[in-house]
Amino acid sequence: MSQLPPSLLVIYTGGTLGMVEGARGLEPGRDFSQRLQQALQSLPPARRESLPDFEIMETSRPIDSSGATPGDWQDLARLVASQHTRYRGFVILHGTDTLAWTASSLAFQLQGIDRPVVVTGAMRPLGAPSSDALDNVEDALRFAAQPGLQEVAVCFAGKLLRGVRARKWHTYAPDAFISPNCPPLGEIVDHQAILFDDRGLDMPQRGAPRFELQDYRALGASPVARIVLWPGIAPHLVADWLNDDRIHGALLEVWGGGNAPEDSMLLGALAKATGEGKLLAAISQCPLGTIAIGAYAAGRGLADAGVLSGDDMTAEAVMSKLIHLLAQPLPSDERRRRFVTPLVGER
Ligand code: ASN
User: 303 and 321 in contact (C-beta within 8 Å)?
Assistant: First the structure.
């Protein structure tokens, strides 16, 4: 492998990690670089000196991640892609609320990445009492310096998770992220980053960048709907979503192993949408396990209506993959083929 550049790039996008008290409560703060450098002085010298070199960049408008959109995911991926050969790895500091969405989208956009992209955040601001911010930044830097890591990952509370498998799972505990259907990729042990053997992406999903930097904004404000079924759901509600011309695809969150009501109006609305080239995919409302649509007679209708199985993907991964595929000038059957094909270890 050719010589890697010496430094990492840390990109601060906002989130609690860098928030400061404002007039209406916590809000994203500026001058993050200065505050981080100061906080790092509190680490024991041996730990501080063993950190990799890094440079810091702030996005033009640090945000609470509840305000992030697919356009922000796109901007971030383009930023990493444009700097990709100048740094040996990347750390992205992000609000935790939609961190898993951004990490999932980055994985699809930065396909084949040959170095670490580590996304982290914090549950409490840097410098606040018992903050997790400095530990998470330190851990993320250590993982981002590992050449063996060649994918988008989430580092939180000492664990490294596949980005496209991660979910925020707790509202306030420091150990807030899990990857329900995928074991961790690594762990911090005694302040050292340990990557577990054979958990990284297989070739050819890594090691040879073939970025797909699509224009998500061109799809319109909300091209994909997320529809969570509930007992007694009225089919016309689902039909209303799917008949909207601005909707090009939908995630259906169904029951158990892939079950949905055998309702001809509901299934008819789904079949009409897929017939129009809309991309529909289903996952389970159960947080663990995969789905097999068609195993039950009641679920068979989903497959007949052209709904694709999202297997054991997270909602964040399905939504960002649907947006990613819809943004590409592909024929409908190719989009469907790619949806069911694992591109970056998402299923
Ligand atoms: N509201 C914050 C955000 O997502 C939450 C956090 O970062 N812990 O930006």
Answer: no
- Ligand 1 centroid from CA 234, angstroms: 34
Q: What is the pTM of this model?
A: 0.97
The atom of ligand 1 lying closest to the CA of 14 is 9
Residue 271 CB less than 6 A away from ligand 1: no
Choose among 12, 113, 106: nearest CA to 54. Answer: 12
Tokens 């069911």 belong to which residue? 340
Domains of the chain, CATH where assigned: 8-205 (3.40.50.1170), 218-339 (3.40.50.40)
pLDDT digits (tens, 9 = 90+) for 59-90: 999 999 999 999 999 999 999 999 999 999 99
Inter-CA distances, 60 with 12, 32, 90, 118, Å: 10, 12, 18, 20
Asked if residue 18 has its Cβ within 6 Å of ligand 1, the reply is no
Catalytic entry in 96, 98, 102, 120: 96
